[in-house]
Specification:
- The protein is about 85% helix and about 0% strand.
- The protein has one domain.
- Helix 3 packs antiparallel against helix 4.
- It has four helices and no strands.
- It is mainly alpha-helical and about 110 residues long.
Amino acid sequence: MIKQILALFIFSIVIVFSMSYAHQGLQYLIDLHELISALLTDVFSPGEAGMLARGLLTFLSIPLLAGLIPAFFYWVVKRHWFPYFMEIVWVIWLIQVGALVMIYKSV
């Protein structure tokens, strides 16, 4: 418990001192989300069902791709599946949710 509190404290200090870099990283994540959404606009219909499918695919593609990159390199080296694949996907998904919720504007 003490180690976790100490790690939380240290990570908080690191984020406070590198806030501009963290903001830039979140902005890149949002830009990538918008790019994938724009690319999928041509594939799906402009109706409500098409927008829902496009949003779902866009929302899931970034965390899955981010998890597959280290999983691929791990597989090349060890020749078996990366054990922390879903943990990486969930962390990226949560970061993406936080960033998108912060910029959400009601239409």
